[in-house]
From TrEMBL:
It comes from Panicum hallii var. hallii. Belongs to the glycerophosphoryl diester phosphodiesterase family. Residues 44-362 form the GP-PDE domain. It comes from the Eukaryota. This is glycerophosphodiester phosphodiesterase. Its EC number is 3.1.4.46.
Length: 391
């Protein structure tokens, strides 16, 4: 842990300009939530999918900082583990598609073939690299139709660095980390004392003060949603933390990676009633809620209505501005897509690659109430006055 803390400090010093940033002193004003603008909870959440990855290489410090600037309520990430057991922010189990690993001759012999969720995959696997080796790689943009100028500029970051980026924001910004590919990670990475990936994941959150039920005082100070496609992982972490959890749901053809259950089984009323005991919401792929045909929207399914009837929130993924990602009904206008999902379907949070666009749409159509802003600012000031007076 010591070495990744050390890296965290270096990164923060680089990010925030020197002596002011000191994660060893959590009482520092940058970390003092009492002086920060609170999380908005009156409208659906803007969840910055892999940071502002529409603009900058995904899951890098730069992508997360951009998302925070642009108004994200939550920054979202995928947690995987290195060969030496460090938790990192990275989406794919292989490094091939979004790093320069293939160009690094010293790693040529590391290419492997493993079974991942029932399929044989060949490439350079995250779990075969130490954190130090992973840090030596550079990340690039996933999609060729996006800005390539930032390729090769940024490193992979650790879970701890990700948390510190959120904690150092100048307002309260939540985190939305995923327990990614837990079956594969537990097969390939071993920790001391028989600890599992899920244990290390929750330990990290607890160490940084993330705890408390949804909307509790603790949660509002450090908001978090824990997400996973693997129900077993969500159920097992509920014994370790009462932080809210979200069950991700894949497309209709992909069975769950741990319990091998079909889409239809895990979206049945019986299953929603069961999983409701462990999670606060579901995160489905948007095209399963409104299945498209020839790139036009089809008839919406009743999944959102049934989830709401089970008191489950719905946070669909993934909203992308580009024409190639928009159904024709939206006239190549991402604001029309947001309007549809917020006003017609009625969801509780949206995973977007373009936090800035969603934020602008929501500020135009449902702005943060001015009076509420003023009242909150006044109450903060009064609370601080009373504190200074020794009450
Ligand atoms: C990497 O890109 C290739 C080609 O686009 C795609 O087939 C493959 O699924 C990608 N791999 C991952 C892990 O996303
Ligand atoms: C790998 O090297 C080739 C040839 O020099 C270059 O075109 C390519 O951009 C490099 N890829 C990455 C991801 O750095
Ligand atoms: C959670 O804890 C209870 C009580 O200790 C135990 O019976 C149960 O098996 C645990 N569940 C999981 C999934 O670990
Ligand atoms: C998963 O379930 C499907 C359908 O019931 C079955 O055909 C398949 O063999 C199962 N896979 C595993 C790994 O158990």
């Amino acid at each position: 842990m010591a070495s990744s803390r050390h890296i965290s400090i270096i990164v923060l010093v680089l990010l925030f300009g020197g002596s002011k940033a000191n994660p060893a002193a959590p009482s520092h004003s940058q970390l003092d939530v009492n002086h920060k603008k609170p999380l908005q909870t009156f409208r659906p959440y803007n969840i910055a999918h892999r940071g502002s990855n529409g603009e900058l290489p995904e899951e890098t410090a730069a992508a997360y900082l951009r998302a925070i600037e642009e108004g994200a309520d939550f920054i979202e990430t995928d947690i995987l583990a290195s060969k030496d057991g460090h938790l990192i922010c990275f989406h794919d189990v292989t490094l091939d598609n979004i790093t320069d690993v293939a160009n690094r001759t010293e790693f040529a012999h590391r290419k492997r073939t493993y079974e991942v969720q029932g399929a044989k995959v060949t490439g350079w696997f995250v779990v075969d690299f130490t954190l130090k080796e992973l840090k030596s790689l550079r990340v690039k943009q996933r999609f060729s139709f996006r800005d390539q100028r930032y390729n090769g500029k940024y490193q992979i970051i650790t879970f701890e660095e990700f948390i510190l980026i959120a904690l150092y924001a100048d307002r309260i910004v939540g985190i939305y980390p995923e327990i990614k590919n837990p079956v594969f990670i537990n097969q390939h990475v071993k920790w001391s004392n028989g600890k599992k990936f899920e244990d290390k994941f929750v330990e990290t959150l607890l160490r940084y003060g993330y705890k408390g039920a949804y909307m509790s005082e603790g949660w509002l100070r450090q908001p978090v949603f824990i997400q996973s496609f693997a129900p077993t992982s969500l159920i097992s972490v509920s014994n370790m933390t009462n932080s809210p959890k979200v069950f991700l749901i894949d497309d209709t053809k992909t069975p769950t990676q741990d319990t091998n259950q079909s889409y239809y089984e895990i979206t049945s009323n019986a299953y929603l009633a069961f999983i409701r005991n462990y999670v606060i919401g579901i995160g489905p792929w948007k095209d399963t809620i409104v299945p498209p045909k020839d790139n036009y929207l089809g008839q919406p399914t009743d999944l959102v209505a049934r989830a709401h009837a089970h008191n489950l929130q719905v946070h669909p993924y993934t909203f992308r501005n580009e024409n190639s990602c928009l159904h024709f009904n939206f006239h190549q206008d991402p604001y029309v897509e947001y309007e549809y999902w917020l006003n017609e379907i009625g969801v509780d949070g949206l995973f977007t690659d373009f936090t800035g666009s969603l934020h602008k749409y929501q500020e135009w159509t449902k702005p943060y109430p001015k009076k509420q802003k003023k009242a909150e600012a006044l109450l903060h000031e009064i609370a601080n006055m009373l504190k200074d007076d020794g009450y």
